[in-house]
Write a structure and sequence with these properties.
Strand 12 and strand 13 form a beta hairpin. The longest helix has 18 residues. It contains 8 helices and 20 strands. The protein has 350 residues and is an alpha+beta fold. The strands form 4 sheets. It has a 6-stranded mixed sheet with strand order 6-7-8-3-9-10, sandwiched between helices. It starts with a strand and ends with a strand.
């Protein structure tokens, strides 16, 4: 097992920086998600950790070894890591057993030792009974587990996963998320997981690094990144938070603030400091009807049924054309008038 240290890592293609001066420490045994939209640099960052791309500047360390710097570059095959791709990258003419055993044979493992190791990892990923099948005879989830077993067989210091669930349907993604969590927990291997899907990142990782335009904008637990976004870009991308201007009038202590929103006083959470700030609201921050008299009137613009709850798009009368999403157990209709309250919300750092 090994942690990863990146210091000032930058990557340019044709003079354009796609990763910009990234400093990042990934702990030994951690499950870290690199989260961001397409083109933000997350896959390029992963490929530099893997050795598939060389940094333009900066340094990368895996464990105690420097694997990339201005004077050092260790090729991928010597970094003792495994990589799981979106495309699985399995040999179609080989069985599951043979796919997993291939790298072990290259490493000169033979006989019973090889057979025992392959059987062990196939049992770990729940594929022991499929050892004789070929990839074409497997489901998408079984192919992905085969690719993961191939990595685990080599006992790598870390495993890098590049959008590994993107080709699976919703049910299989949920199953594989549980499998990844279980295998990570039982193996203790460091996992670095690239995804554009915030739900995957939140469900799987110990910490999330949110990337935008080649930089890491926020690094924290899923709860912190979702509940306490560091800036408007993170707030919009993670959870699609609605951003509203507020005037913080009073610091109440213990992370609580009192603020004016459209001339109504409400209590919120956030860093200390008064004055003009920005409020991030999630659907769970809104209650219909309001619990007190400090309510806001709105028109229901759209309604979607989402498994026991209704997602409402609200157009508040007094919030300058802002649209808010709220969750309600009541099936309102488009055009209905409702009152809502704000029971919580996060005020961004000043």
């Amino acid at each position: 097992m090994a942690g990863i240290e990146l210091g000032g890592v930058t990557k340019r293609f044709d003079q354009k920086a796609v990763v910009r001066d990234v400093d990042l420490h990934i702990q030994d045994g951690e499950f870290l998600a690199l989260l961001g939209p397409s083109g933000c640099g997350k896959t390029t960052l992963l490929r530099m950790i893997a050795g598939l791309e060389r940094p333009t500047s900066g340094e990368i360390r895996i464990g105690s070894d420097t694997v990339a710097s201005q004077s050092i570059f260790v090729p991928p095959e010597d970094r003792k890591l495994g990589m799981v791709f979106q495309s699985y990258a399995l040999w179609p003419h080989m069985t599951v057993f043979e796919n997993v055993a291939f790298a072990l044979r290259v490493a000169k493992l033979r006989g019973k030792a090889l057979e025992d190791r392959v059987t062990e990892v196939l049992e770990a990923v729940g594929l022991a009974e499929f050892a004789a099948r070929k990839p074409a005879q497997l489901s998408g989830g079984q192919r992905q587990r085969t690719a993961l077993a191939r990595c685990l067989a080599m006992e790598p210091r870390l495993i890098l996963l590049d959008e590994p669930l993107a080709n699976l349907d919703a049910n299989l993604r949920g199953t594989m998320q549980r499998e990844f969590r279980r295998i990570h927990r039982e193996s203790g291997t460091t996992f670095v997981f690239v995804t554009h899907d915030q739900h995957e990142a939140m469900a799987l990782s110990d910490r999330v690094a949110v990337m935008h335009e080649g930089r890491i904008l926020q690094l924290g637990t899923p709860q912190d990144v979702y509940g306490q976004p560091a800036n408007p870009t993170v707030a919009r991308f993670v959870g699609k938070g609605a951003l509203l201007p507020v005037e913080v009038t009073e610091t109440l202590g213990q992370g609580r603030l009192r603020a004016l929103l459209s001339e109504k006083l409400i209590e919120l959470s956030g860093p200390e400091g008064t004055g003009e700030r920005t409020l991030c609201l999630r659907p769970g921050d809104i209650e219909i009807p309001p619990a007190d008299t400090a309510g806001f009137a709105a028109t229901v613009m759209s309604v979607e049924y989402r498994g026991g709850m209704f997602a409402l798009e609200l157009a508040p009368d007094s919030l300058n054309g802002t649209r808010l999403e709220a969750a309600s157990p009541v099936a309102y209709a488009e055009g209905d008038r409702v009152d809502f309250g704000i029971k919580s919300g996060w005020v961004l750092p000043g």
